[in-house]
Amino acid sequence: MPTDFESELLRQRNEMVQIQLRKRGIHDERVLNAMAMVPRHEFVPWQLQREAYRDSPVPIGEGQTISQPYIVAYMLQALRLHFEDEVLEVGTGTGYAAAVMSRIVREVYTIERFETLAGDARKMFAQLGYENVHVIVGDGSEGYASAAPYDAIVVAAAAPRVPEALLSQLKKGSRMVLPVGSSELQQLLLVTKHDGEVDRRYLDACRFVPLIGKQGYAVEH
């Protein structure tokens, strides 16, 4: 039987889905169901588990955060994910968003520059039995060409501009969502790659940690 603490976390997760997501316009049932399934509290430091389902980011170490639940859902909904998709995520963190995507799509490739966070994510995926998530340590601004092209790309760090490497690894007719702007304030950008052209549509304002790498920011901001 679940403990009182586990029952309380489940209650909070269900409340997160209904109040923070559904009531604020997240309507993709695949995203909602996946976020109801994935135990977000397992992807934050144990001492912060009681904060896992709050409507805010949570620090995870290395100066990084696990994004606000609404932002995760909003970005994934914008990608219009499907069961057969292969997706690249830039910025694994401890693996929460990749875990959510793994419940929706066929394969998730996620790249993280901090080996400590990547290691934690691998351990959690193994513990939860999420076998369709592949963690790579490297420069996320350059993507992961070995498994390209992708049906969708999601970037969980702010870039000064759309990295050309990521754009080149996106299939024609597919989408990428990423925060673009200064280190202080960005907007989410939805990029759709067509045959010979790229559509760009700005979505909501947001704030993410900077994307560090050859096609991102060169130094910490």
Which descriptors would you attach to this protein?
alpha/beta; two-stranded antiparallel ribbon; 6 helices
Would you kindly provide a written description of the structure presented here, covering whatever features stand out?
This protein has 221 residues and is of the alpha/beta class. The protein has a domain at 60-206: Vaccinia Virus protein VP39 (Rossmann fold), CATH 3.40.50. 29% of the residues lie in helices and 27% in strands. It has 6 helices and 9 strands. It has helices at 4-21, 29-37, 69-79, 96-102, 115-128, 164-168; strands spanning 58-61, 64-66, 86-90, 107-112, 133-137, 150-155, 170-181, 186-194, 197-206. Helix 1 (4-21) runs antiparallel to helix 2. The radius of gyration is 16 Å and the shape is globular. The chain starts with a helix and ends in a 15-residue tail after the last strand.
